[in-house]
C-alpha cells in the first residue's frame, strides 16, 4: 500500500484521533522528508500500551515502548512493518514472540535491554538482514541458542552483558562479519 506515494516533500503527517487499527507495510514508503508523524489515539495495541511512533528524515521510523510497564510475554501484532528502530527497553518483558520480531524486516535497531527475559527462542531474529544493533543486555538470559544470530550479516553491535549466561557455543557468532562491538561482560561464563 503506497497511500502517500509521490509525496516526497511531506515533512509532517498527522493521523491521530482516527479509528486506524493497523498500518500496512509500505504505507510510509517514499516519505524520505517525513520528520513529524503522529498516529496517537487510534485503537492499536501499541497505542494502548503507551508506545509512540515517530519519524526522522531518511525514512527512519522509531517505535518507542521504553519504560511503559509492559510485563510478561509479548506479541504486539500491529507494529507497522516499516519500523526501523524498536525500543522495548526498561520494561518487565519475560519473552518476545518470534513472529512479532521476524515480520519487522526493516528493523535496523532492536532494544530489548533491561527487561526480565530469561531466554530467546531460536528463529526470533530470522530474516532481519538489515539489523545492525541488538541490545539484550541487563536481562536474565542464562543460555543462548547456537543459531540465534544466524543470518544477521549486518549486525554491528550486539550486547549480551549483565545477564546470567554460563557458556557460549563456538558457532554462536558464525557469519557475523559486520560485528564491531560485542559485549559479554558481567555474566557467569565459564566456557
Give a verbal description of the structure.
With 191 residues, the chain is mainly beta. The protein has two helices and eleven strands. A hairpin with a 3-residue loop joins strand 3 (52-56) and strand 4 (60-64). The longest helix is centred in the middle third of the chain and has 5 residues, at 98-102. The protein is globular, with a radius of gyration of 17 Å. The protein starts with 11 loop residues before the first strand and ends in an 8-residue tail after the last strand.
Stretches where pLDDT is under 50 for at least 5 consecutive residues are: none
User: Rounded to an integer, what's the Rg over CA atoms?
Assistant: 17 Å
Sheet with most strands: strand arrangement:
3-4-6-8-9-10-11
Structural class: mainly beta
Give the integer mean of the pLDDT values: 91
Overall outline: globular
Set down the secondary structure blueprint:
Layout lengths: L11 E3 L21 E3 L6 H4 L3 E5 L3 E5 L6 E4 L10 E3 L4 E5 L1 H5 L6 E3 L21 E3 L21 E3 L21 E3 L8
Parallel strand pairs: 1-2, 4-6, 5-7, 6-8, 8-9, 9-10, 10-11
Antiparallel strand pairs: 3-4
List keywords for this structure.
single chain; 191 residues; mainly beta; 7-stranded mixed β-sheet; two-stranded parallel ribbon
Concise account of the structure shown:
The chain is mainly β and 191 residues long.
Amino acid at each position: 500500500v503506497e497511500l502517500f506515494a509521490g509525496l516526497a516533500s511531506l515533512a509532517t503527517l498527522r493521523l491521530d484521533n482516527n479509528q486506524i487499527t493497523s498500518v500496512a507495510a509500505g504505507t510510509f514508503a517514499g516519505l524520505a522528508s517525513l520528520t513529524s508523524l503522529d498516529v496517537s489515539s487510534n485503537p492499536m495495541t501499541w497505542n494502548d500500551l503507551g508506545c509512540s511512533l515517530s519519524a526522522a528524515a531518511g525514512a527512519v521510523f522509531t517505535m518507542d515502548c521504553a519504560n511503559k510497564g509492559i510485563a510478561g510475554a509479548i506479541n504486539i501484532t500491529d507494529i507497522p512493518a516499516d519500523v526501523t528502530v524498536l525500543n522495548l527497553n526498561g520494561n518487565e518483558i519475560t519473552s518476545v514472540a518470534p513472529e512479532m520480531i521476524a515480520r519487522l524486516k526493516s528493523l535496523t535497531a532492536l532494544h530489548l535491554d533491561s527487561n526480565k527475559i530469561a531466554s530467546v527462542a531460536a528463529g526470533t531474529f530470522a530474516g532481519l538482514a538489515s539489523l545492525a544493533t541488538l541490545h539484550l543486555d541487563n536481562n536474565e538470559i542464562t543460555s543462548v541458542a547456537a543459531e540465534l544470530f544466524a543470518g544477521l550479516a549486518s549486525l554491528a553491535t550486539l550486547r549480551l552483558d549483565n545477564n546470567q549466561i554460563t557458556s557460549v557455543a563456538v558457532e554462536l557468532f558464525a557469519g557475523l562479519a559486520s560485528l564491531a562491538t560485542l559485549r559479554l561482560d558481567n555474566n557467569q561464563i565459564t566456557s
